[in-house]
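hiii so my PI (J.) wants the whole complex modelled not just the main chain, which honestly fair. so below is everything: two entries, each one labled with what it is. i double checked the lines twice but i was tired so who knows lol
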Amino acid sequence: MKTLSKLLVAIAASFPVLGIAIAMPAAVQAQLASQTTTFSGDVPGTCQFDLGANQNVSMSPSGATLSGTSSNIGILANGSVNVALADVTMTANPANTTPAPTATLNNVTGGAAVLGTATPGNNMGSTALNNSSNQSHNVTIGMAVTGATLPGTYTTTVVLQCLTP
Amino acid sequence: MIFPFLLAAALQLDMDNKVVKPRLGNRIAIQTAALLGGSKPGAYEVTAHLNTNKNTPGEVIPGLRVRPKRIQLRDAQARKVTLSIDADSVQAGVIWLCIAEKQSSGSLLQKSGASLQILTRSCYQRIVEK
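here's the output for the full assembly
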């Protein structure tokens, strides 16, 4: 027992800092004990087109109308988004023709339905996609060009917009 | 035949802090970052647009400054982008920040026959407060 007491005294003497800590005011000890580190961050809303790089889609002539539909275009967002077609433009057509393109945005995921149409100078309004968060939602774009009365090159552009409100 | 070539990217914007205000002088500065979304590497541009009566992006805001003007996205790393808007060019209300593939003169599209070029654009709504 005497040996044990000596051992404890020796340990206490070898850790003088321990003695200082015990002598600290209670308020300081409480402050040290309550220190916390907070990690915070924001998840930004994103909308991306998750799709195949190259698509080959046939456009078939029927009389003076050219028409075709794209392959599936996947829209991947981490929240609810809207979509719209814009800036439908004939960028090339034979001389002496006045082709009139009409683009149609078709819903694929969750049931086929026309989401809206756009023509030159008349963009489609913002329309809810009714997508599920973090799940790719497929749409297609159809194009019909009337007034393709002469043989030659007909080129049309359309912008598909994913709108995060 | 239609040969659409599609590229896409996204902007990182805080959805809980949509209001933007003039801060330095008379300009509205918006910092964001552009990143690829599993899409092909390529050149992209970020633009800011006025709102239309259809609640879609309209014309590009006059006097818009974007740095860098051309963004080359190659990998998963986000690239910082800063937009500076003259507050006199916009009214209080909705504007749109968009990222789209940079259009080049040397298009990959087939130049003969009937073709459709589908461009994609991701746009994010902000509210201007004066």
